[in-house]
Amino acid sequence: MSASDVKKNADTKMGKSVENLKLDLAKIRTGRAHAGILDHVQVDYYGSLVPLSQVASVSLFDARTINVQPWEKKMGPVIEKAIRDSDLGLNPQGMGDTIRVPTPALTEERRRELSKVAKGEGEDAKVAVRNLRRDANEQLKKLVKDKAISEDEERRAQDEIQKLTDRYVADIDKLVQQKETDIMTV
């Protein structure tokens, strides 16, 4: 393993941390309806839990309502129960063949709570990135100890890994700021 391998590995893992943050932030409600809010809802489909998107079509009915169209008629009540039991605080309503999921308006207090949740997710992602930086630096020290690279190469690689870390932390801050703006917009 060389210093460039350590940097590539750290870059890849830091990128995955940012992608995970994007997924986590997408689950936080903003007061407006979007189909992605139901992505992590699991439905009991003949004894096994599957994502909602595999048993129904999810689309927007209007700005505050999500429309769920089950592919099998008898799945309607099961899908309603799964959405109701999820931690999203949504109350689906069966309308014949379709299910309407109104997204209630958020109170100011709830917006502040969700904003704190978004910040917490961002901090967790930053901690993950910093841990990856620490691991990469430890790998570089091990390479120097094993005389695979020189101390100058180690120092240069550590500087580049620090720049990577700074870039990913800035990306995380930007994502969290965008999400907070979305949450606080009425």
TrEMBL record:
Stored PANTHER family: MITOCHONDRIAL RIBOSOME RECYCLING FACTOR PSEUDO 1, RIBOSOME RECYCLING FACTOR
Protein family: Belongs to the RRF family.
Source organism of this protein record: Pigmentiphaga litoralis
InterPro entries, sorted: Ribosome_recyc_fac (IPR002661), Ribosome_recyc_fac_dom (IPR023584), RRF_sf (IPR036191)
Alphabetized UniProt keyword annotations: Coiled coil, Cytoplasm, Protein biosynthesis
Listed name of the protein: Ribosome-recycling factor
GO CC annotation terms, alphabetical: cytosol
Gene3D superfamilies: 3.30.1360.40, Ribosome-recycling factor
Gene of this entry: frr
Coiled coil stretches, renumbered: 133-167
